Amino acid sequence: MNQHVAPVDIDKFNLVVELEQEVLGAILVSGNHAAVRGTVKVEHFLEPLHRRIFENIEIAADRYKTARLDLVVKLFTPEEAEQCADRLQMPLAAYLAKLAANTVGGVAQLPKSMANLIQEWARVTVGAEAERISLAAADPGADPAELIKAATRSLDDIATGLRGGVKGRTRYSLSEAADGALDEVQDAMKRGSGITGITWGLSDIDHLTGGIHRGEMVVLGARPGMGKTAVGLGVGIKAARSGAGVGFISLEMGSRRLAMRALTDIIFDWNITVPYNDLITGRVSEQDFDAICNAKQDLNQLPLWIEEQSGLSISDLRVKFDRMQDVAQRSGHTIDLLIVDYLQLVAPSGRYAGNRVGEVTEISAGLRQIARENNIAMVALSQLSRGVESREDKRPMLSDLRDSGSIEQDADTVAFLFREAYYLGKESGKDPDADMERLDRLEQVNNKLEFIIAKQRSGPTKTVDLFVDIGCSAVRNAARSF
Q: Which of 47, 119, 138, 454 has the most CB atoms in a 10 Å sphere around its CB?
């Protein structure tokens, strides 16, 4: 896990050694490795001997379903046992027996001991990484951008280990899980919204999905020109208006352009239609500008924060999210929904350099992990492959998700956007009659947006018709039949 993390001088940290001894001793006393499985990992042990002991504990548990002291000892080779004895000045078996005999908290205190061990591992490893960065920065030829990138990767590795180790309880009986599910349902009933998640702000979609749920990732895919940024931003505004804290990470469009879209969206509800492009070019009447200024006051009340930096990696996104969460908490809110625009623009780590499928797989898994670790709802916008354009029916399908099938695998819900009007506007009829027919159809569907739910773990797949004014970035429930 921590391939970027600097080595640690263990001799400086007696407390870490004692915590490692406590955890190992408690496991050896009981022979039960299950209590630490999935929480404590080999890399959390900084003392090499303790790391090797834990490796053998895991092997014994997997192979023999017990981590008894005598089995763990026998998994050391004679050469290893002799080297350990020379270093310890006692037989290896005696050292393990001493660990078991001297455990203070025992099995009952193992959860607390594990948490303390991981906390200390993180503290010590952060210090070692800081020393390494300090030494590297002393070189006049060092590239500060590369130093920052390396430090971000290393610290994110440590943070991942820390989050995984102290996340608390992860195992529930079915009855306990059902109690939590019923609490969600009761909350929805009290709110009167009929949804258990964060609202889309679009009633038909809320009805089909129950909202956008915490700990889950929604992928919203579309070809260019379909309005995915408008939908993503509109959902963010409506969710913020409902009381949810929203973070919008834009890897493509600047915050000012997003704000212009938001303003035209808001005044659309006031029966004022000012196309987004008119704001950019300043073609706005004084009366409409006054309305836009009033809309700005409306925006001031919303718990919605925008990060506009391009080229962010998953590690960077975690850092940006943490900072955004700090800002939100200082204003009395929390980030409940994170919208990323868009997935394919997230920078890969370099681990799969040249392998685009591997890169997108890593990005998709990383976004879902952020949602799960932080118990937030995630909406990841996604660009679809050009294969859509080569078909007569250009409605997207799951196979159109670009670069990697893992996007479909990681997503709890996959939805697509389709505007027939976009393609009709680009075509020309084969003859005057065909062109007249095309223009008639274009008028019929000019404000129609299809929201295609192609995958949903907890609900049906279905297409929902929405109303869209693409120029004003306004997406609404369908107000009429198309």
A: 454
